[in-house]
Amino acid sequence: MNLLLGFVAQLLHIALMLTATPALVSVVRWVEARLAGRTGPPVLQPWRDLHRLLRKETVVAEGASDLSTAAPLLSATAIGIAAFLVPSFALGMTFAPFADLLVIAGLMALSRGSIALAAMDAGTALGGMNASRATFLACLAEPAILSVVFVLSLLVGSSNLDLVAAMQQEGVTDWRTAVALAFAATLLVAFVDCGWRPTLLEFSGRSQALIEATEALRLLLWFNLLGATFVPFGMAPAGAAPTAWLVGLASWLIRTLLFAVALAVAQAFVNRVRLMRAAHVLGVAILLGLLAIAYLFADMGTA
Amino acid sequence: MVLTLLAIMIAALLALAVVATFAPRIVVSLGSAGIAGLVILAALAAMAGIDPTATLALPLGPAGAAMRLALDPLGAAFLLLVFLAATPCALFADTGQAASLAGQPASPAGQAASLAGQPASPARLPASLAALALTLLAADAFTLILGLLLLALATGSSLRLATFGVVCLIAAFALAAPTTIAWPDCDFAAMRAAPPDGWRAGVVLVLVLLGAGSQAGHATRATLPAVAGTTIGSYLLIRILLDLFGPAQPLWWAVPLLVVGAIAAVAGSLRAALETTLQSVLSLGGLHQLGLATIGIGVALLARAVDLPDVALLAIEATWLLLVAHVLCRTLLLLCAGAVETGAGTRRLDRLGGLAHGMPIIAICTLAGLFGVAVLPPGLGFAGFWLLFQALLGAARVGGFGLQLVIAIVAVLAALSTGLSVMAAVRLFGVAFLGRPRTPRTAVAEDAPFALRAVLIGLAAATGLLGVVPALALLPAAPALAYLANSGSDTLALALTLRPGAEAPGYAPAAIAGLLAVAGCAVFWLLYRGGSQSNRREPAWSGGFAAPPAWLPFGEPATQYGPASFAEPLQRVLRILPLPLIKRLGGGGPTPDQAPLSSPNPRPDANHHPLRRAIRAAVRANAATSIAATSIAATLIVIVLAAAAWLVAP
């Protein structure tokens, strides 16, 4: 029974991710526009954009190899799988045993890396610059993410995301400082990663559609990841009846909307993340992560 | 029986080295490869029915002692691993030198490079294979030292460093040997029975670390030493620290290994992200894997000291997987680099570019190798790193606050090194294989000969398969790893999932790879089922540059991002370090081979005005100092807060 429930929940989750992604983009854009005093695009605009790109002819840059087609595909797939692994409204989905935090971080790095390679394929200056900066920021983000994973895994005794979410649902009372510091570090990394959008000029048609879908899905993935690791309240526990899913769905909706509004507000204030400022923010995130580990050890010593 | 055969093979290799000067190159190459293949077979045969007590005393050696050879599970596993890499190296030993041998170096740079590289003596290949086998089979200190010396002489890479390492090891053995036996007769079995203690133990640890660390000097542009020679360093650490010095060591022994491993990992991947030639990027990048493997050995020591065999097993399995990734992927990558040097006439990154068109197979194989080394799922390197991270988590529960903090910092540094290794991989592949050619010679690069391509495809497939099923890589070493971890169970099931505990959910590379494949195929089918609609080719919009004229067929090469510009953000961050350290790491401005041959016209212009120059320098320094100031301030705050946390904890 649990197997079947998990499977149905997994299918629902996949469908939810695929449909919610464009909606999320339109919400973020709408809030950004309102903050800037504009009307904003219509709600259906992201769907229209994707539809338009999918119908268009694909123009490939001279001198580009087949990687220009393959890399956006790989990047989208990696982010997609990561998004399918991170729970949204219910725990105990079919893919839950595979949802390791390190694997999810690795899949995100894989997506970034393949897009960076695609950007270098046509041999333009802007593409190279994008690739260089994206990989540079990714290599600063990695230690910050892994220090957070370190904290959570030490608390739970496993780096599996489902177990982490289940533990956070039960509520930890002894280690609030460490978890709060880790949350702050993750927020900083997520803010930089969501704000850093590659401007890829060499792609068109379906490849461009894939890249835009990847960016949107990455946003939703970060929101789900933040929600599942730090604020998984209302999420249906493993093996719960489908009625609990409704509560989970409602809480997921509220969480995601809150994150979306927060991101839009933050981006309205910061406008655009410049490279070295982003590096500073990530450096602070690394230090916060280290501090979280130190506090955790100190607390474990007393406990 | 197997040992006798192996001894005969070593003798045959040495004989081949003697006659190599007269024999044709092809005979030496094929002969060495054939004997290396036989060594693999012997190692496999030994694994099937192994007898750990079997030793073979050779009628050679110093007065009063005989050289002893033995083949225990650990030696057999390393013999298999090293010779799996050595066989293709022996077959294609000349790859990469063909351009210089044919006497037609394509560019002044290529000429300079081939002149700088010593012409390889044909005797080197069989001699280094013999040295490798001798080192791995040695059952007493004298034989081990002899093997190391022979290896250093045969590979010829950084002889001074190798001599230093050997001297350190001799001193270590002399100190560690039980007082009951005389130095030349320093039998491994006797050493296991009486491990060193007290002050000797500390000195010995430092000496062994220096001796094993100096093996990293083999990381040069030649394939065999860069792969096999550096692996010998890890073998020495494992053999001496985990095997010869008994089943448990003091807790603090782990700290130097953890620190050295973390520094090596970060320095290796940083160098890989900054170096300017294919071979140096690849061979120095190997230090990343070896550093991570050293961290694994450190965690194993720690876990053995506090009697946690499960954590020790995780750590030692991680070490083994990282070493397998290092050996297989590094061989693949360095052979690919050799093929590029032959096909494109240079190994300088700033002269390559667009090789994916001329050398598609080599490009795919390089990508496979880089994927295995960069820590990305579902690659082989990721499996090793995942296990290492779990072992670090397990080890973080023991010891005091100080030790725990060391482990945490080591974990964060390991994470930084993985990020840097991804950056290095993207830089190498993007600059050399993608984009437009940077020189006309590169534009007409040709793919490697069929035999080399076949071997490379085989190696690439093997690394891919082992990444998806890491248990296959652990299987041949399972008894040795269980013995090293003091773990009772040496029956490793061929599990598809790596787990930190019996019941815990783990990392399932096969599932991740399967999901990626299914989802990728689904998206591909959805998007491209109607066939690819006329992929029109147009010149890329390059920041406003016009389309290149007819006489500049690949456009202006300088408008592309090159190896130096790709690493520029890193260089900017590196400026917070003291200058000598930056120089050491290969950063800080162009290296001599990057400097232009003729300096541009030194016309005095506005920039040379002293005041203006001073202002520019101040502005430039300001960016660096602001980063430095922020980082130092933030670090200080963290240290103070951490100290506060420690004080609060009773």
How would you portray this structure in words?
The complex is a heterodimer of chains A (303) and B (650). Chain A is built from 10 helices and 1 strand. Chain A is an all-alpha fold and 303 residues long. Chain B has 650 residues and is mostly helical. Chain B contains 27 helices and 3 strands. Chain B has helices spanning 2-19, 25-48, 73-91, 98-101, 108-116, 124-137, 141-155, 159-176, 188-193, 199-213, 223-244, 254-274, 278-305, 309-344, 355-358, 360-373, 380-395, 401-433, 440-443, 450-468, 470-474, 478-484, 509-528, 563-566, 568-574, 579-584, 610-648, and strands at residues 55-58, 67-70, 536-538. Chain B has a two-stranded antiparallel ribbon with strand order 1-2. In chain B, strand 1 and strand 2 (67-70) form a beta hairpin. Classes of the chains: A mainly alpha (303), B mainly alpha (650). At the A-B interface, strand 1, helix 3, helix 4, helix 5 and helix 8 of A face helix 17, helix 18, helix 23, strand 3 and helix 25 of B. Strand 1 (59-61) of chain A pairs parallel with strand 3 of chain B, so a sheet runs across the interface.
SSE blueprint and pairings:
The complex is a heterodimer of chains A (303) and B (650).
Chain A: H1 2-35, H2 45-55, E1 59-61, H3 67-85, H4 101-121, H5 125-156, H6 161-170, H7 176-195, H8 205-230, H9 242-270, H10 275-302
Chain B: H1 2-19, H2 25-48, E1 55-58, E2 67-70, H3 73-91, H4 98-101, H5 108-116, H6 124-137, H7 141-155, H8 159-176, H9 188-193, H10 199-213, H11 223-244, H12 254-274, H13 278-305, H14 309-344, H15 355-358, H16 360-373, H17 380-395, H18 401-433, H19 440-443, H20 450-468, H21 470-474, H22 478-484, H23 509-528, E3 536-538, H24 563-566, H25 568-574, H26 579-584, H27 610-648
Helix pairs in contact in B: 1-2, 1-6, 2-3, 2-6, 3-6, 3-11, 3-14, 6-7, 6-11, 7-8, 8-10, 10-11, 11-13, 11-14, 12-13, 12-18, 13-14, 13-17, 13-18, 14-16, 14-17, 14-20, 14-22, 16-18, 16-20, 17-20
User: Which structural category do the helix and sheet elements of chain A fall into?
Assistant: mainly alpha
Order of helices and strands of chain A: HHEHHHHHHHH
The major β-sheet of chain B equals: 2 strands, antiparallel
What's the multimeric state?
heterodimer
- The pLDDT mean of chain B sits at 81
